[in-house]
Specification:
CATH architecture of the largest domain: 3-Layer(aba) Sandwich
Shape: globular
Oligomer: single chain
CATH topology of the largest domain: Rossmann fold
Radius of gyration: 20 Å
Order of helices and strands: HEEEEEEHHEHEHEHHHHHHEHEH
Length: 386
């Protein structure tokens, strides 16, 4: 049985299992609405390894319904965190937090990292919790649930972010309101996911009271990013994106174009976390691992264009930020996205950061993003520098 058949069967079994769980949870056995909660169980989140420094909030590990890149119903996992103290200013705001690249294996999922005390981005989540916001953190499709992670399939990722917020609202124990103000934030893979959530929200989740989206280090053009990473120490990220797109769109048939060595390396990448992806594939070139120019095949080009940000107009203000010294996502890729959004009349505040690396861009920009989102929650006017 090949890998794709196993993954398909796993997803079918997961969906059937989710349906069987619903009656016990008081749900409707045949409900398939995106954002419906399939399962929720209390969990604990830690700031440090060894189960040290417990985050003092109410926390649930959730399974919820979402939508794949091709429009199929799926089940995604995530974590919902809600402060213990009452929110003093009305309905508690809800933030959808989209994490950056963690890897491809289920053990890399943000929910697993938070439970183990190894989630670096919990620092930014904590800034939101300190403001009294509830925070819904998606694991994305296939990261924490059966099947391959559809890494960098932006449409799937945007759906997962929006549906995590819906699930937070629909979980009775969380006591959140459908009329609550909503914001979204993410960096790197999360920046792409946040921007996709902004683009998709008007048609996919119009009931959410989205007030603003902050997206940093956005890999808006996957073709440009892949070309940039080819042969570099971070080629593993581009390879993972190839695996992710292949998982999202079965017609791409990536395995058909891999050399024996390429097939072994790419198959091994399917359950690696980010450090392993980088180390195992550092310095490699896609042309050395494939039998044809995969990225420029018509079917791949069509899906790459479909997952290129900037072709639709978010209806809420955006804060876009990018490190000028970013070695992974070219500065110009995000700057082009900013120009395209501005040309469409989107209210964008753009910030080029002096940071000298991709990671430092997250460190410098994260607090700025949370502060900007706080102003959107308060209803203050959003400035633009288009």
């Amino acid at each position: 049985m090949n890998h794709r058949v196993r993954a398909t069967m796993s997803m079918i079994l997961s969906t059937v299992g989710a349906l069987l769980l619903l009656p016990a949870l008081g749900g409707t056995a045949r409900s398939t609405s995106a954002g419906d909660v399939v399962e929720a169980r209390p969990t604990t989140v830690y700031l440090a390894p060894g189960k040290l420094l417990e985050v003092p909030v109410k926390t649930w590990h959730i399974l919820y319904r979402s939508t794949s890149a091709t429009g199929a119903s799926n089940v995604v996992s995530g974590t919902l965190l809600v402060p213990n103290s009452p929110y003093p200013l009305g309905r508690r705001p809800i933030a959808g937090y989209a994490v950056g690249t963690h890897g491809m294996g289920d053990q890399c999922a943000p929910s697993a990292a938070m439970a183990n005390g190894t989630e670096a981005e919990l620092a930014f989540v904590s800034l939101m919790l300190l403001k009294g916001w509830a925070v819904a953190v998606t694991d994305y499709e296939g990261l924490g649930t059966p099947g391959d992670h559809t890494y960098m399939a932006g449409i799937s990722q945007g759906h997962a972010v929006l549906d995590a917020i819906r699930a937070a609202i629909r979980l009775p124990e969380a006591k959140l309101s459908g009329d609550a103000p909503v914001v979204v934030m993410g960096y790197s893979q999360g920046g792409s996911s946040a921007a996709w959530a902004a683009q998709l929200q008007p048609s996919y989740a119009p009931e959410l009271r989205l007030k603003g989206v902050a997206a940093g280090g956005v890999p808006a053009d996957l073709q440009a990013v892949a070309d940039h990473l080819d042969g570099t120490d971070d080629f593993g990220l581009a390879a993972a994106a190839g695996v992710g797109l292949d998982a999202a769109y079965p017609e791409l048939r990536l395995n058909s174009y891999l050399t024996p060595e390429g097939a072994a390396l790419f198959d091994d990448a399917r359950d690696d976390c980010v450090a392993e992806l980088r180390s195992k594939l550092a310095g490699r070139h896609l042309s050395d691992l494939t039998t044809t120019d995969v990225m420029h095949r018509p079917d791949w080009q069509a899906r790459l264009r479909e997952n290129r940000l900037g072709a639709a107009s978010p209806r809420v203000p955006l804060f876009l930020y990018h490190a000028k010294g970013d070695e992974i996502i070219p500065y110009g890729v995000d700057r082009t996205l900013r120009d395209e959004y501005c040309a469409r009349g989107v209210k964008v505040l753009w910030k080029g950061l002096p940071a000298g690396s991709h990671v430092l861009g997250a460190v410098e920009g994260g607090p700025l993003a949370v502060g900007w989102l706080a102003n959107r929650v308060l209803g203050l006017p959003a400035l633009t520098n288009c």
